[in-house]
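Weekend entry, working from home. Most of the wet-lab plans are on hold until the incubator is repaired, so I used the time to fold the two sequences that have been sitting in the queue since the last round of cloning. Logging both here for the record. First:
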Amino acid sequence: MTYAHLRSAIALAAALAFGSNVRAADYLIRDGDRVVFLGDSITEQRLYTTYIEAYTVTRYPQWNVTFRNVGWGGDTSWLRQRAHPDEKALFAADADQQQSMVNDAVKRGLERDVLPLRPTVVTIKFGMNDHSYQPFREDIFRAYVRSQERLVRVLQEAGARVALLTPQPIEDKRPDPDKDARNLSLRKFSDGLKDVAGKTGAVFVDQFDPYLGLMMRERAADPAAFIGGGDAVHPGPAGHTLMAWAVLKGLGADALVSQLDIDGGAQRITSAQRCKADNVKLSDGALSFDRLDDALPMPIDPRAKAALQLAPVLDELSRYELRVTGLTAEAYEVKIDGEVVGTVSRETLAKGWNLAAEAGPITRQSRSVLDLVFKKNDVFFRRWREVQLMSLPNWARNPVSEAGRRAEIAGLDRQIAEFEQQIAMARQPQAHQFVLTPAGR
């Protein structure tokens, strides 16, 4: 079979058989879901949430899943920015009064910003503003736990599956971040969140411990190490990639993209998981074959490469593997579609090489999906925060202004739909030709 024939023949076969090849039983997000990310400014950054979305759409390219981010800077579990409760009264209230205040705030905030999106999955990430950047306070903690439980109950009643995410620790430049009074407080808030998850049946995802563990390891080697980028509270792309790594694992994300095993000496495929291959040839020491995968590797933001040196992100979330035995040269130059993507030892190829971050045209295709997801999410933010929730001044409140706002929303909705169509097309895997040539030739 020729390379051209492989493109057309197994592309159809892959599309028809895709559902049986994907192992998504443990992943909280499923085909047909409407996912909403609820949180504070760290969620509003649209980084860890975009990485989670990009993982999902590239790993399951046939799924119809939508994602919306309604993070709001400064927000709390009692929806401070959306419902504006009297916090002094909230913290001082007795149990019945506090529950009533929480019920009212949660109802108003969710009914405006979340429930109209008809979510089937909601991730909730609060705690950073809740603890008010100070040593632990029992009165605030009680309001936090009660508010988180109420959020879960209302969302579950609306038919959504809920995941409760702990905040990540604060990363000041000090050698002992585990002794920071604010982090000690966040640890107690995270423990309280775990209890809420156990009580309500929500999924509990701990970002705090994995992130703090990485910080402590790096500070032991270099007291001035700063792993997240950004600032102490708002990590940059590297920190958000570490957050996405922890969250995706907590949501049950699968590590395997695909794996292809070839006996080079015998010129035959010995195993193919979530991929198809054909046309295996060995000529003058060079091995060539054609490969079509069921999915793309998880895209890694180019700004976040440092995260790959800090945590096993690719090993645990994006195993795009090639294993070749029966080779004789010490090392091989690997080309995909004529592009050199790396030089690999025979031993590494025999054990299995994860080339998720080095797959040339395949990696670029995956990153192009990430770029589109970023653009779509920016448009939704503008639609929701800058147009939908804009409060018109009195002088502008007239039918013409309201009609203009409705027209602007409709136009932004069209842009979002167009980006989602582009994402759906861009995430479809393509067939590629691999050539392994003895290095130095």
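Second, folded right after the first finished:
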Amino acid sequence: MSEMILEGGRPLLGCVRIQGSKNAALPMMAAAVLHEGEVALHNCPRIADVFSMERILRSLGAETCWEDHTLRICCRNLHGFEIDREDAASMRSSVMLMGSLLGRQGCVRIAYPGGCTIGERPIDLHLKVFQAMSARVEEQGDLLEARTPDCLWGTRICFPISSVGATENGILAAVKARGTTLLENCALEPEITHLCHFLQAMGAEIGGIGTRRLRIRGVRILRDAQFWVPPDRIVAGTYLYAAAATRGKVELLDVPVDEIASILRVYEKMGGQWECNGGKLKADASGVRRMVEYTRTQCYPGFPTDMQSVLMAVLLTIPGKGRIREEIFEDRLKTAGELKKLGGRIHTAGRDAWIIGGGPLTGARVEARDLRGGAALAVAALAASGTTVIGSAGFVERGYEAIDADLAGLGARIEMR
């Protein structure tokens, strides 16, 4: 995997545009399978996870092509239903294809999905959704196979816990199911709303969008559609917190301000200032100096788990004591061990991390262990003195299209090799 080399010690200054959302684009790509025609996703991020999903779609018979940041997907001649073991293992979002393949082909075979190793991420809720809609699910070693006797049937499903992936798979399975499906206790993440709007553009009938109760009436056919992938709220949060760690002043273009409200609240607690006009967020982090004593990750609209390790990196630069509790993924605090190599004073136990900030950070050799942890190491490296080499930087490229060019445009000294 590639390495990222950063020389820290200077504030970020300048302007950067926020890319399209990874977590919105991937389920939209899965949704394209439901339509026997063509869809176009504008502002689609050119990142490793999107390329992996594109490769899977092509293996199933889809035709794809890129025009700058527009991805065109034609599934008119889709013929496959089995997802390659290696492809499934490479990314968690491959599981999104289960609902759409069942709706289109009536069958799907897939290995247990992979992705970042940030703790247990069971898919039992996904499988229960399919079973409730009349699919038969069988495990064959590490393979899963789901089939419908004739078609999927609409039903009422109440999720016992809020699950983004299970909600998205339930939506995808319901779009062409016979009858009406009622999904209750749905997750509220913005990416679910974006998926519903994309499906509506294709002709799906979905009510209750943006609430915990979705009502989906199945349709027989969908239509060609074009859709603009919204900006990535986690990328926006990462660059904002990079400015906070370096006490910089940045302008972020195309920021989904409403979607990053919890990120902005924590930024304000640290002493950061910001204003937004017409999608341009101007952030002045020169006054960041207050430790945030307690933060816990939550499902949306709470503070996102994807920003937890990035926040940890920022807090290391602020004098005082803080605590972060990880409520979503039990193994997501492991980035703390790498931050310690830079001089960070962190103690972890269970789901909690205690941070003593304000001490000097010094460049060192560290290893990215997952996507967001790799971004957090880059943020800490920007605030550290000397040079930091981040190994396995390919993790970061799974979700950030051009983090090296973006940060360099803000004055960072950074190189990928």
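Plan for Monday: verify the second prediction. Residues 233-246 form the longest helix (14 residues).
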